[in-house]
Each structure stands twice: as structure tokens, then as C-alpha cells.
Amino acid sequence: MIYSIGVNYNLLTVSLSSAVVNSPSRAYLASMRPEELLTPTPAGLCCPPGSFHVDPVRPVARALITHAHSDHARPGHGAVLATAETLDLMRLRYGDNFAVSLQPIRYGEPVRLDRVTVSLHPAGHVLGSAQILIEANGLRVVASGDYKNVADPTCRPFEPVRCDVFITEATFGLPVFRHGDPRAEIEKLLRSVGLFPERAHMIGAYSLGKAQRVVALLRAAGYDWPIYLHGAVEAITRYYANHVDLGELRLARDADRSNLAGAIVICPPAALNDRWSRRFPDPVTAFASGWMRIRARARQRGIALPLVISDHSDWDGLTAAVTATGASEIWVTHGAEEALVYWCRTRGLAARPLHMIGYGDEDPESEGLEGHAP
Known about the structure:
- By secondary structure, the protein is α/β, with parallel strands linked by helices.
- 23% of the residues lie in helices and 24% in strands.
- It folds into two domains: 3-176 and 312-353, Metallo-beta-lactamase, Chain A (4-Layer Sandwich), CATH 3.60.15; 182-307, Rossmann fold (3-Layer(aba) Sandwich).
- It is built from ten helices and 20 strands.
- The longest helix has 14 residues, at 182-195.
- It is globular and about 65 Å long.
């Protein structure tokens, strides 16, 4: 079944001509170019024939949201359409009234929005993350949002979607970024725990997605001791625990200092150097991030144990995803755009950078501390 949803045009932040919005014609659709189906605007990618934006950076009438990270999912929109998990996570982060109305969409469910059909497909980035397929008159455009195409026990795996135009991120869009096997990074962490049983191990991890993935990877590696949480990651981690077994979780603030020797603690990266960290016995600081591939970054932050674990595709993952879509045209939204565009062009693909502003700007060093008891 295909559902049809209307929109209040008075809320639109982008001026759309009445000829496009209100008076569609078959001739117009028959000659539609990708830029007419989806186009960059100051508010984000806009679909005029569907009267919606994808991951808009300012309030709009109707927003399709790929995932709940705050550089893609902002409050204040009219209608928000996303997976149920993304809507739940936005509610946890922003409160019950973060949008006027909400529309959960299941993976693969076609929804009619004015003159286009949209559907969501797993992106493998975090719980509930989705690529958005937009179809009109045989033209298929996929907006990837953020994604990774490696196994993650906490979310549905990335599914390539065949399309004419693939709109991809490029956070780690340079050949130097090859993340490797995250299980090897977890084994490195556990060896350190074994070598220093008298010391706590504090792992800086992004509060949505990365923190829960690290816990799940530890459980998969056989670590069955309690894992301690900073208050800023508790609510989201408890929500994840409804979807994946994360074992015993405890709040660090409730723990006796004598019980923290040898413990593993998950916290936002900013907490690694916060006074909150002083409660732990001689802590070993770790940081789980794709940026830890660059050792200078680890040294600059004073990270003793860099863990190369990323929720974004590395260079090989990006190029594999581009190939798997079969798209003849590639748009790159944010990250190391030029390198990926160049790679695509050397393979005979039409490619261009979009230079989108406002994505990839969420700072994992400071995210998640304000408003939470540690």
C-alpha cells in the first residue's frame, strides 16, 4: 500500500513556484532532471515536487530525517518523517514537542508525497538510520545520509539501493582512512584491561551510536563484567538495550571508587578531560573514532589508547557503496568531497560536490555533557 501525505505550504522555507508546487504536468515530469527532483538550498536538500527537505538545517514544513544525530536531525520542523527508532531517539534528545507532527515509516514502505514516492532503506550508521529513495517518473535518487557498510550488532546493515543518482557523504573520503576490523580494536582494549587491572579504562565514545556499539562489541568479545556509563549516555543506551543485549549497565556516579579498579567506563569524549574523570583510579583514556587512524590527533588529545572504530564508511566502503548502487551520477554532500568526486570521474561517472553547510559539524568533544548529571 502507498500512503499519501499532504503538507502546509505556508511553512515552507524555500520559495517554490506555483507552477511546480500546485500545477504538475506530465510534460514536466517526463523531462525531469535530477536537479529538479532534489536540489541544494540554504535549508538543505529540497525536493520541490514532494514539498519536503532531507535533513534540513533550519525549520521547514516537512522534513525527512535520515538518522538522529543532531547535525542531521534538528527540532522545530512541521512534519517529521523517519523510522520509528529515529523518532524515538529525537524525542529522547529534544523532548516530546520537537515537531508539530510525526510519521514513522518502516524500511521499504513506499509513501506518496505529492508527486513523488519515497521509501527508507537501512544505512548501517546507527539504530534507525536510513537512506532515502526518492522516485518520480522512473527517476531514482538516493540520499544516503551517513552510513557504513560493515557489520554492527546494534543496527540493521547497510543495503545498497539501485538508483540513477547516489547522494553520498564523504566524512572519511580519503585513501588514508581504512578503518580495519573493530573487533581487533576491542581485543586491544581488553589486553590493556588485563595488563592494568588496578586502573579504570575510560572510553570516549559518541553518545548516540558509538557508545552502544562499543558496549555490544565488548559483549561479543566475551566481556561480561558490568560496564559503567556517564549520565549523558544513559538514556540512549537504555533505549538501545530494548533492541540489543548490552548486558549489565551501571551508572558511574553510583559506583564506589573501590569497585572501579579494572572497570570499563563509557563517556562522551569531552568527559575524558573533565573533572568528572577524577573519581576513577589512575584511568587509561581511550577514544573510539575513525579519526584515531591519524595518530597525531590521538597525541594532541592526550589519548593513551586510540581505538579506530567508526560509524562512517572508510575510503574502501565509500567506493564500494558507490559501485554497488549502479548510479551513473554521484553527488557528494560533506566531508572530503573532492577526492571522492575525482575517484568517481576517473571511473567514468558524472560527479560533483554539493558543499553542503551544517553537516559533520557536531562536535563529539563537547556533545552530550550539558543538562545531564554525570
